[in-house]
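Do me a favour: review this protein, sequence plus structure tokens, and tell me how the chain folds. Record follows.
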Amino acid sequence: MGIYFTVLSSGSTGNATVIQHGGTSLMIDAGLSAKRLEALFLEREISGTELDGILVTHEHSDHIKGLGAMSRKYNLPIYANTSTWAALEKSVGAIPEENRRVFETGEKHDFGSLRVESFGISHDAAEPVGYTFDDGSEKLSVATDLGYMSDKVRDAISDSDVLVLEANHDVELLRMGRYPWNTKRRILSDIGHLSNEAAGAALSELMNGRIKRTYLAHLSRDHNMMDLAKMTVRDAMESRGCFYRDHEFKLCDTYYDRPTPWDRVGEP
């Protein structure tokens, strides 16, 4: 059967990822307008009518912009923890009670034969989370908007076949950039975003022979570039003694303006 996914959009302008397994289709976040999400769906030959629900990581606008509109148009349940529901409900408009689903941090929910588990992350939001998707033989993990790689996050994603992992910024580009210092300080903090270097350090601890691919996600358009992110991540891994060959492990791109190709988690 297999787990398939596409990162529809990733970055500060909006985030959404679709995961499919058998007859189940789920979307993580809806951080673009409903119109834009539907255009991205068409690029990957899917429709909002196929979705079984939307999983929310946290309440920031680049993760929930189209959440209410998508839920109402397609009668979709929204899954979020209690704190995130309290923080986002004023931003998403009226949601029918039957579509307000509570998915507390650390819980596991089964969608058909796909088990989804949430795990807590460190970010300046009410109670932000990442998600893992496991069908018993394949596992995909999505971890973005995390200020640092905690032991709990590492434990949650360590046995993944494929990761979607934040590599938000190059530290020096951010420090020299146009943002005010208080914004830079927040991004660099433990409740901000994971840098390229930090992503590489985290991956060096996660390389256990099972991880085949990592999609570098949520890149800053002002303070990062994909080629720079890949180079820095590789250098950080190799400086820690983690060497790999392209046929064994790959770093993959994500985009703010177009979706990634469909990927099967279990494929080499």
